[in-house]
Every structure is written in structure tokens, then in C-alpha cells.
Amino acid sequence: MNRQLPITAMLYIATALLTVGCNEDNDHRLVEQAERHEQRQASQNQQALELQREVAAGARQLVEADAKARAELATLQVAIQSERNEIGRQRDQLEEDRRAIASIRRLDSLLAAALTNASLLLACLFPLGLAWLLLRSADEPVSDQVVVETLLADLASTEPRLLVRGPSGDSPKAPRLSDRQNHHHSNPTDEE
Q1: Per-residue pLDDT tens for 24-65?
Q2: Phi, psi values for residue 144, rounded to 5°
Q3: Distance between CA 129 and CA 152 in Å, rounded?
Q4: CA 114 to chain CA mean position, Å
Q5: I want to staple 34 with a disulfide (CB 3.0 to 4.6 A). Which of 14, 75, 174, 187 is the partner?
Q6: At what angle do helices 24-139 and 4-20 cross, to 10 degrees?
Q7: Average pLDDT for residues 101-124, to the nearest whole number?
Q8: b or e along 27-40 (b: 16 or more beta carbons within 10 Å of the residue's beta carbon)?
Q9: Is the dihedral of CA 34, 39, 43, 46 positive or negative?
């Protein structure tokens, strides 16, 4: 609007000068100046319009670039949040695994201690149990048939264990069964 005002003012001035009745040469010069001024004004208006179009295009590109940058920023924020969630999940899984391993280690150490103590207890009880069995079996009388079979097996063997032969190769002196029975009955602790 401000640019059109000088054009209009120039037209009024040009018409006023024409009506005053100045010299035609001066009038013609004024008309030419007015036309040149009008052409310059039109050219300036055209340049201003072109500049406004370029500014509008630049503003549009700026808005589009801003929108694109905001969309990329939103995408990056979603990706970062997703990565944070994954890292948090992995950290929780790692903590759970650590606790499970710690629990297994505690259980293993407890089991090792229990097995060690149980083995020690069995090692202590085994001789006592063996002694008890031996003492208990001494209370039961050995039958004559078992003694005879044992002695016959020892005599028939190439390396006797019960009956040792003398240096001259004489037959060994066998203990008498009656001696063993008398010895067994004479022991007062066995009868109880």
C-alpha cells in the first residue's frame, strides 16, 4: 500500500502540472519522468513481489525442515526410551541371575558342609557298629558243623591259615573242639 501511494501522488502531480498550462516541452519531460518513475516503481514492485515469494518459499522450507527435525527428534526419543527399557530389563535379568547364582553358591556350601559332617559321622559310627556286630556275634555259639567245615577247608588248602605246619612238615596240631566249647562255657560274661 505504501508503495502505491507515491505512484498515485505522482499521477496527481503530473495531472496538476498538465492543467496549469506549462510549456509542452516541460510537460513532455514530466510525463516521461513520470512514466520512467512508474516503470521503476513497477520493477521495484515486481522485485518486492519476487522477494516475498522467495521469503515465503524459504519460510515454507524452514517450517518443513522444522517439522522433519521434530519428527526425527520424536523418533529418536522413542528409540532412546526403547533402549532404556531394554537396558533396564537386561539389568533386572542380570540382577536376578546374580541372586540365583548367589543362592546356588550358598546351597552348595551348605550341602558340602552337610556331606562332610555326614561322612565324618559315618566314619565315626562305622567302627562302633563293627565292634557291636563283633561283640554280638561272640555271644552266639558256633555250631560244630561250621567249625569242622572251616578246619577241613583249611587242611585242604595249599596255604593253610588256621593250622600252621611245623618246620619238619608234621601235620599241625589241631585244636580240639571240646577245648573250645569248654572255654566258651567257662566264660561267665558270655552267658549273660
Answers
A1: 566 788 888 888 888 999 999 999 999 999 999 999 999 999
A2: -65, -35
A3: 31
A4: 32
A5: 14
A6: 180
A7: 93
A8: eeebeeebeeeeee
A9: positive
Q: Which has more pLDDT, 110 or 182?
A: 110
Determine the residue type at 26: N
Matching residue, cell 541372586:
99
DSSP string, the chain: -TTHHHHHHHHHHHHHHHHHT--HHHHHHHHHHHHHHHHHHHHHHHHHHHHHHHHHHHHHHHHHHHHHHHHHHHHHHHHHHHHHHHHHHHHHHHHHHHHHHHHHHHHHHHHHHHHHHHHHHHHHHHHHHHHHHHHHHHHSPPPHHHHHHHHHHHHHSSS-SSS---TT-PPP-PPPHHHHHHHHHH-HHHH-
Count the residues in the chain. 192
- Whether residue 176 contacts residue 163, with contact meaning beta carbons closer than 8 Å, is answered with no
CA nearest to 108, candidates 116, 98, 96: 116
